[in-house]
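Sample intake sheet
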Amino acid sequence: MLTLTAGYLAVPGLSAAFLCLLAVSAAGAIVFRVARCRPAHRLPWLLLAASALCFGASRLIVLAGGDRLQIPSWHAYVNIVAIPKYVLFALGLGLFARARSSGADRQSLLDAVTVTGALPRWYGSSASFRP
């Protein structure tokens, strides 16, 4: 992961390719650890892995499209894969919060929703990404 991150920062022309590799390796690491450690709540981890794969797939579509993908619309292929990453991530965080809190404690759920709401700024929107 450190090598891929260094490559992402060092070679701007291949940044989309490195993002795809980072996403796939992160999802693979999550799935491997879930299979090996067998946590009590597996579904949230698998949702996070699926979110990482959706992120990688959206970057792969942008990479394959090159400069042809100017302004994404609802009909663009990148949005079909990019939008579910937020839903999967939100569901994973929500399930983590639900597993960690008692029934009356909603503060954990509010924290998870706050972090998920800030994801578009952290990940960046599909419209602002240029390979």
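Comment: Residues 2-128 form one domain. The chain is about 75% helix and 0% strand.
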